[in-house]
Design brief:
Elements: H1 9-29, H2 42-53, H3 63-66, H4 69-84, H5 86-98, H6 103-113, H7 121-147, H8 153-168, H9 187-200, H10 204-216, H11 222-245, H12 251-260, H13 276-288, H14 301-316, E1 321-322, E2 325-326, H15 329-356, H16 362-373, H17 388-413
Antiparallel strand pairs: 1-2
Helix pairs in contact: 1-2, 1-4, 1-6, 1-17, 2-4, 2-17, 4-8, 5-6, 7-8, 7-9, 7-10, 8-9, 9-12, 11-12, 11-13, 13-16, 14-15, 15-16, 15-17, 16-17
Length: about 425
């Protein structure tokens, strides 16, 4: 009897995300998900579901004026499922149903969160769920402090929970029509949302590393040091530059703009009036994105750090070193692979949208495409006007940005077979 061929974890993740997207699209398409007298096409429902599960935030409709309370609750669940990852939910269900987790499910969870295969599954699952619950609860309490001053208690509680979930999962969906524009003078709201975004973008593995350090004195890993240092550098650099180049922006909103470009999608400064320098800086920060195993997207901080380190080391004729540890050649190759493929995908998608939607400027299209691929959700206001073909391209980019490389890299890593070897030849570069 032939044994069943096991589906690789990366492919399982990709299929799992697609299943959740389809179910979400159907639920959001139902009349009960819409406000009275308002409807949404299935393509738009599919777009919003993809954006939620891929924790992007781009939407062709005004969520606050389109979705009913039931619809926004479905949206919040999709964001939470997308942020935690299909694997976390699937493994949790298996755990509750059977009381144990098999090796295949364990590998799926590790691949989803970018964890070392030495890390215990129960510990990893508990870590992801507990960190999410604690941070989102604290965020909701802080947001309620401000929201309760403008809304009835019940509504303020719901808004606090929704936006805490959306912010921590780097989704960027809001129920205010104008994102955080009405809160741009409220430091508590801006700092809370920005903190949730930043904490969600660090990655669950980092939290486990920090907890182990304080509990048992275990040394902080190089991965954690790279994530923290690169994140701090990008936020500080972005804050200073946005403060200098955006007309009329103050420090707290410059800080918010710097953080939200790291795959969140909220905005407290009108993105449609960004000067060219502001557009360029936002695109760069969106493309870099958050960190591995987090709720955010982009090529990741570690890829950016590794590529920059390797480039300078190559110029100096040295091996790349970080925090007194040499970076492996495999890590360097993966970093350049992710960045190069990402650039190519964005370039192709942006080119196709210039054909499907020639009414938009090249800067608007590039901004939208990078935002979709890096699962950011920021827009210069063109999303509702994008053609059906353009929306399909953006849907594909959001999906690839969230799950594409998990499938590709894991597939290559598990299919290494000895093949023919050829004589090495030097290629002239530069």
């Amino acid at each position: 009897m032939k044994s069943r061929k096991k589906i690789q974890p990366g492919l399982q993740l990709a299929l799992g995300f697609m299943l959740i997207i389809v179910i979400g699209a159907v639920l959001l398409y139902l009349p009960v998900s819409h406000q009275e007298g308002v409807s949404m096409s299935f393509l738009d429902s599919f777009f919003v579901s993809t954006s939620a599960v891929c924790v992007t935030g781009l939407t062709p409709v005004d969520i606050s004026k389109t979705l009913s309370d039931f619809g926004s609750f479905v949206l919040m669940l999709l964001i939470q499922l997308g942020g935690l990852g299909y694997a976390v939910i699937a493994v949790l269900i298996i755990r509750l149903a059977s009381g144990k987790i098999d090796a295949s499910s364990g590998n799926l969870l590790r691949d989803s969160l970018g964890a070392d295969h030495k890390m215990g599954i129960k510990k990893l699952l508990t870590l992801a769920l507990s960190v999410t619950a604690v941070i989102e609860l604290i965020g909701a309490v802080l947001l309620f402090t401000s929201f309760s001053e403008r809304y009835p208690i019940g509504r303020a509680i719901y808004l606090s929970i929704f936006h805490s979930v959306s912010a921590f999962n780097n989704a960027g969906f809001d129920l205010f029509s104008d994102s955080m524009m009405k809160w741009n003078s409220d430091p508590l709201v801006l700092i809370t949302i920005a903190s949730l975004i930043a904490l969600g973008g660090l990655g669950f593995i980092l939290y486990g590393d920090v907890i182990d350090h304080f509990r048992s004195g275990k040394k902080i890993t190089v991965h954690t040091k790279i994530v923290l240092s690169t994140t701090a550098f990008l936020i500080i650099m972005g804050t200073v530059l946005f403060r200098l180049i955006l007309p009329g922006i103050d420090w707290k909103n410059a800080f918010f703009q710097s953080v939200t470009t790291r795959t969140a999608g909220y905005f407290s400064y009108d993105q449609s009036i960004l000067p060219p320098a502001g557009v360029a800086l936002t695109i760069i920060l969106m493309f870099i994105g958050a960190s591995p195993g987090s709720t955010g997207g982009g090529v990741k901080t570690t890829s950016f750090f590794t590529a920059v380190k390797a480039s300078f080391s190559l110029l100096l004729g040295r091996n790349p070193v970080a925090f007194k540890r040499e970076i492996s050649s495999e890590s360097v190759m993966k970093a350049f692979f992710v960045i190069i493929i990402s650039v190519l995908l964005v370039a192709v998608a942006a080119f196709l949208i210039t054909i499907t939607d020639p009414q938009f400027g090249a800067d608007e299209i590039l901004y939208e495409t990078v935002s979709a691929y890096a699962t950011v959700g920021l827009t210069m206001g063109i999303t509702p006007s994008v053609s059906s073909a353009g929306k399909i391209i953006l849907i594909i980019m959001m999906y690839l940005g969230r799950v594409g490389f998990m499938t590709i890299i894991s597939a290559f890593a598990r299919r290494r077979t000895p093949g023919a070897r050829y004589i090495e030849e030097k290629v002239i570069i530069g």
